[in-house]
Design goal:
Two copies of one chain form a homodimer. With 353 residues, the first copy, chain A, is of the alpha/beta class. Chain A is built from eleven helices and 17 strands. In chain A, helix 1 links the parallel strand 1 and strand 2. The radius of gyration of chain A is 21 Å and the shape is globular.
C-alpha cells in the first residue's frame, strides 16, 4: 500500500493513564511507556500502525507541553511543528479541532485519521485495510467514519457504536452512540450483534471536521478563529496559551458524533484493547505456565501464579516475588504497587492522585 | 562515666549481611544501613553505645577496603589511620589480631573491647555498666571477658556461652563455648540457666589478645609479624595486601575462646539482637495495630497485617501494599523482595548470591 499524499494522521497523546499507576504517572503517562514489554512504547506502536497509510511527515501529535521532549525522542521522524502542544487538556473536541484547523490551513484537501495514542491493535494488517477503506470512503465527501470493534465480551468499560447493520468489515451507517452500559445492557448489545466498541478512531476530511465543529460546537470554533491567524508563526504558542483554555471541555463524541447525521462505521475484529486497566494489560502479555504476565529482565518468581509483574526502568534491579496469587506487582521510578488484580479499580486511590 | 585513657574499642565491620537482602548487599551491607529506621545506621549505633566508655579518638574500625568511604562518612570522628582495611575477609581472628597488634604497638597498656558492628542493644545504660565492669576486670590481667546475653527463647541461630554460674551481671568463669544448638538442646540450655548467648563482644588487654593468638593461632601471629614492621607507615597497605591473605580463615571463637582457660563472662539482660534475619528486624521495629513493622516515609497499606515493609533510599517513592499478611516487602536500590516471613531462610537463594 502506498500512502496517499492527502492522508494525515493525528495522534492524541494528552492523557495521563491514571489507572496504570505506578508505571503510568502524570509525568510519564502510559502512551510513552512500553507497557507490554515489546520494545516500543504505545505511541510508537500507534505510529507504526498507521505508517502503511500515511507518510511519516504527515503525522501530527497533540499533547501536553510537558510531553514535548518525550514525543520528540520517541517519534523523531515527526516534524517539530507538527507536534501540537495544548496549554492544558480540554478533552478531545478542542484537541481535534485545533489539529484539523491547522492541517486544513496548510493542506486544504487533507483526509485525517484521528487516533488515541495508547491503545493496542493486534490485527495490524486488517487494521490497515480498515483505515484505507475509511480513507477512501471519506475522500471528497462529508462522511465521518468511526472504527468499530466487534465486542468479544459484555464490556461495561467502553462506549458503543450502534450500527444500522450487523455486517462487518464494510461501511455501514451509524444510528447512534451509546455511553458505557451496565452489564445487562452490555449483554444485550453483545447478543444484538450491531453494537460495536467505540475505539475513538475517526476518519474524515479535515474540512468536514471543521464544518461539523462549527455547526455543533460553535464556541470551540470561535476560539479556533482567534488562534488561526497565528498558525505556523512565532505567535502561535502565545495565542494558544491565551485562547485555548477558553475552549469548552468536551469530547468529540458529545460535541459531534452524537449530533451529526453523517456518521458511518467499519466494524472489525482487530484484536483491539485500550489497555486501560492492569487486567487488560495482563491479558496482552504472554503468560508463563502459571498464568503470570511478567515484564522485566530480572524478575524471579517462586510459588507465584496469575500475577501481573511489571518492572520498568534502568534503575530496577533484581525482583523476587514469592507466594503471591492473582496480584499486581509494579515497580517503576521508585514507586511500588502490590495489590490483588481484583482490586485494580482502587488504583486511582492507591496512587494518591 | 569518664572514658579511661587506656580503653580502645574495635568495631568489626567487614560482614556482608546476606540474610537481609535487598536492604543489605555486598556493596552496602547491613552495618552501614539504618535498618530500624531510627536515623542512625547500625555501625553508628554501635559507636554511640561505646562512647560513654571510650574516647572518640580511641575507636578503631576493621572493614573491607571498599567500605572505607562509608565508614568515614558515617563515623567522621574516628581518625583515618584507625580505619583498618582488610584486603579480604579472613573471619574474626585475623581481624582482631591485626587491630590489637596495631593498637598495642602504639598503646602498650591498652584495654580493648571488640564488638560486631551490626547488632542491636536496647538496654544501653546497662550495657555501659557491663562493659565498664569488664574493662576493670581485665585491666592488668590476662582475663578475657565475653558479654553473655540472658536468653529469652530457645534460639538455634546463636552460639552459647556455658558459664560456671547462673548468676547475672557479675563476672563468672566460662566453662565452655557451644556452637549453634538444635532446638531440643537450646531448650535444655534455656532451662539450665547457665547458658548465655554469645554476642561476639570481647573485652581484654591488647597484650592478652596478642599473647593468646601467638599461643593458639601461631600461624596468624606469624603473618602479623610480617606486617607489624610497616604499622603506621606508608608501606602498611602494601604489606597487608601481600601478607594478610595468608591468614587462616578462622573465627576468634575457634582460634582462642574455645582453647583459652582465661575466659570469663558477664551475663546480662541487654535487649540484644544480632538483627540477623528479617524476622528479628521486624521484632525491633514498632508495630502498628495490625502487626506491621514499617520503615519508610511514603508507605500506604490496605488490608495488610503482620508484615515487615522496609523501603530505604531517596529514590524510593510511594509504596502501596494491599492485602498481604505475614510478608516481607523490601525495596532498596531498585531491588525488590516480596516473600512470606516464614520463607526468610531462603533469602540467600532469592538474592542470587
Amino acid at each position: 500500500m502506498t500512502p496517499s499524499d492527502s492522508t494525515h494522521v493525528v495522534i492524541m497523546a494528552g492523557g495521563v493513564g491514571s489507572r496504570l499507576w505506578p508505571i503510568s504517572t502524570p509525568d510519564h503517562p502510559k502512551q510513552f511507556i512500553d507497557v507490554l514489554g515489546v520494545g516500543r512504547t504505545m505511541i510508537q506502536l500507534t505510529f507504526d500502525r498507521f505508517l502503511p497509510v500515511c507518510d511519516p511527515t504527515h503525522f501530527w501529535v497533540v499533547t501536553g507541553e510537558k510531553y514535548l521532549d518525550m514525543v520528540r525522542e520517541q517519534l523523531p521522524s515527526i516534524p517539530l511543528d507538527q507536534i501540537l502542544l495544548e496549554p492544558m487538556g480540554r478533552n478531545t473536541a478542542p484537541c481535534i479541532s485545533y489539529a484539523c484547523r491547522k492541517i486544513a490551513a496548510k493542506y486544504p484537501g487533507a483526509n485525517v485519521a484521528v487516533t488515541p495514542s495508547d491503545a493496542l491493535v493486534l490485527q495490524k494488517e486488517k487494521f490497515v485495510s480498515v483505515i484505507d477503506e475509511a480513507l477512501h470512503a471519506v475522500d471528497g465527501t462529508d462522511r465521518i467514519v468511526t472504527v468499530g470493534i466487534v465486542p468479544t465480551r459484555p464490556e461495561t468499560g467502553y462506549g458503543y457504536i450502534c450500527s444500522t447493520s450487523t455486517v462487518k468489515d464494510t461501511l455501514c451507517k451509524v444510528s447512534e452512540f451509546k455511553e458505557k452500559p451496565d452489564l445487562e445492557t452490555a449483554r444485550k448489545y453483545l447478543e444484538a450483534g450491531n453494537y460495536f466498541w467505540n475505539a475513538g478512531i475517526f476518519v474524515w476530511a479535515a474540512e468536514t471536521v471543521n464544518k461539523e465543529i462549527a455547526l455543533h460546537a460553535p464556541s470551540i470554533s470561535a476560539v479556533m478563529d482567534r488562534i488561526a491567524p497565528s498558525f505556523y508563526t512565532e505567535g502561535e504558542r502565545a495565542a494558544l496559551r491565551e485562547f485555548f483554555p477558553q475552549c469548552e471541555k468536551i469530547s468529540i463524541d458529545y460535541a459531534v458524533m452524537e449530533k451529526s447525521p453523517n456518521i458511518y462505521t467499519i466494524a472489525s475484529d482487530l484484536g483491539w484493547s485500550d489497555l486501560g486497566t492492569w487486567g487488560s494489560v495482563g491479558e496482552h502479555i504472554r503468560k508463563d505456565g502459571a498464568g503470570n504476565s511478567i515484564v522485566g529482565s530480572d524478575v524471579h518468581i517462586y510459588n507465584t501464579g496469575n500475577c501481573i509483574i511489571h518492572t520498568e526502568g534502568s534503575e530496577v534491579g533484581r525482583v523476587v516475588v514469592d507466594s503471591l496469587d492473582g496480584y499486581i506487582v509494579s515497580l517503576k521510578g521508585g514507586k511500588l504497587l502490590i495489590c490483588p488484580i481484583a482490586n485494580e479499580q482502587r488504583i486511582r486511590e492507591y496512587s494518591g492522585s
